[in-house]
Write a structure and sequence with these properties.
By secondary structure, the chain is mainly α. About 65% of the residues lie in helices and about 0% in strands. Helix 2 packs across helix 7.
Length: about 140
């Protein structure tokens, strides 16, 4: 059947709840990074960079486009290549896994729709591995 005749499914961005849901996810994630003792290595890493407030905004911008919504990050920076975005940060398996652990907590605390949580984590798993630049 012709793809043009198939109804389009809403983007994951829409299915998750749009900007409000993405903003909540990012805020909960960075609250975990700042407050959870287990997340301390991520917090320190962000403090060495532009800071957590900067990261909150950039991650929101990035994730909106990542999930099929507005491409705020690309509009601002001209690309959304994760490897390039993170090339100045040493990311090995431990840091990658810690980020994923914190994001899993954030997904649950932010009340993303339960039927999408594992799909979102799969997307984040691929993305996190893309950022890894150390063994």
């Amino acid at each position: 059947m012709n793809d043009a005749l198939q109804p389009r499914r809403p983007s994951l961005f829409v299915e998750l709840g749009g900007e409000e849901a993405i903003r909540k996810l990012v805020e909960v994630f960075y609250d975990i990074v700042e407050q959870d003792e287990d997340a301390r290595p991520l917090h320190v890493l962000h403090l060495r960079g532009h800071g957590v407030a900067h990261s909150r905004e950039e991650q929101f911008n990035y994730l909106c486009g990542f999930f099929g919504g507005p491409s705020y990050y690309v509009q601002k920076h001209g690309h959304s290549r994760l490897k390039e975005i993170h090339e100045h940060v040493e990311i090995g398996p431990d840091l990658r896994d810690l980020w994923l652990k914190c994001m899993r907590k954030a997904i649950e605390k932010a009340d993303l729709p339960a039927n999408y949580r594992e799909m979102v984590m799969r997307h984040f798993g691929f993305a996190a591995e893309t950022t890894r630049n150390r063994d």
